Amino acid sequence: MKRLIITIAIIACAFAAMAQNKIFEKYAKMEDVDYVCINKAMFNLANSVLDAELSSNLGGIEKMLIINSNTAKGKSQIDKDIEVLSNDKNYEILMTARDGGESVVFIFTDKRNPHELIIATQEKEESSIIVYAGNFSSKEVYEMLNGKGN
Q: What is the per-residue pLDDT across 77-91, written as a single tens digit (0 to 9) for each?
């Protein structure tokens, strides 16, 4: 019985991890959106090429998604998803910044998956979402956000 419960819990966690990225995966096929997905293998390749100090900042990243649009249709969809994240109780807003009404930056973390950092920006002509997923410490998150180590 204990094995069954553990197995069900593992499967549920796997489905939860897949479901949370569905909000972003839909952008892979949208025409009005630039979409880049970088997986662990590419970070491993980068680590072998870059110097040790710079590559240490990449070590914990398993996946990075970059979603961007400067078209009205694409920007509108990204803005809707940023609004969904802002109102989702499973996500916590770590920081919000405004630049004279011209630009808004949100930094989110998923309470269910603390190893996911989402940076969303909304500007007058363009919106972007960057998702870092992996196993990194709060110190590494600080260094990513502050450009340390490069």
A: 999 999 998 898 888
